[in-house]
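Input/output pair, single chain:
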Amino acid sequence: MKKIFFILIINLFQAQQSWTLKECIDYASANHPLVKQATVNIQKNDRQIAASKGILLPSVEAAVNHSYSFGSSINQSNNQREALNTQYDQLIAQANIQLFNWRNYLNISLSKLNRNTNIYKLKQAQNEVQLNVIQTFFVYQNSKSWLDVLETQITGIEDQIKRTEKEVEIGSRSKSDVYDIKANLGTLQEQWVSAKNQRDLAKINLYNALNITEDSIDFVMNNEEILSEGDFSDSDFTNKLVENNPSYKAIVAEINAQQKRVSIEKSGYLPTLNGNYSWSTFYNKSLGKDNISTVNFSDQFVQNKNQSVFFGLSIPIFNQFQIKNNVEIAKLNVINSNYDKELIINDLTKTINSIKAQFTNAQEKYHLLELNFENQRLSFQKSEEKYKEGLMDAYTFFIVRNNWLQANYNLINSKNDVIQQTELLKILKNGL
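Output:
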């Protein structure tokens, strides 16, 4: 049993994977339901294009009819009505084709435009998923870093309490030093519980962004990540990112599709030309009588063959203003889509400018914290020397030590913020 338990533990640890931000983005971009739905929509468009082209081909059908008639009917031999019981068999084949209907050609163009729209929407879905993954990934990393800082503080204060109690025993420290340090331990432990809860919630949100239900992944930062410098010197920076964004391209493609729908509705004013070809034959015989004179089955089918060719021109004259109203509705849809375009431009401009501003602020903050980090490090070293020499009480050293740990966290958090804004801008710059 012990061996089996040991093997299960080993397998459990092997199942735990470590994913960097790039691996999270790659997974979500390929496996998130929003992305898969957008991919299915493109496949549906392919079928719609094929269906639109298929309308240009003739439709062909065949039918076989077998019937019995009892009572008064027409005698096929003399074309007189008689009291007859008859058997009637018929074979029909026909083909129908729309020789000219401008709507059919416009529908092909519309299907292609809809496919282009959904291609942009696929990239839009991927971008939205990637942006969400980036944000939740760094929320998790920051919450995990803060929990690590608190754990280090708690471990340090517990060790410090033990050392101070020994120093009190030998008389080199006063008993009040122990009370001062213990007074802060409870506060740190309370903060640790809250920080642990925040970290767990952040991990749940990250799993949700990845559409993963099992807790089997450890999310880690890439230690080789290099901070980049933002290049916002181009005065047209925001406009270029907006025009390159799939959300913008999707709405532009949708406007083109709406304009095509106007043309489709206008095609209702045009005439249509239809053609039809049919071939048929039949077999007929009387039941319950002497059928010696009845022509046999094969001869009747040959003799009764019939072919017809039909051409029809349909010209719309008055249709209760339905076409006119449909055209006006299609035009209003174009106007409405243009308003959607304005809303998307406003939202994208706000998002891009916000990320750009946060990137700049994060960089400035990181450089300042780097300087403060070095000062805090030197202060901690000097304080540690004073504490060991008995020139600083335990509570004051505890405060200095916590400030040093806090400076560590602030620097990590600031660096993560710069990397996060860099990754967000990278997604927006890549476009399609």
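Confidence is low (pLDDT under 50) at residues 1-14. The chain has two domains: 21-57+101-270+321-430, 64-100+281-315.
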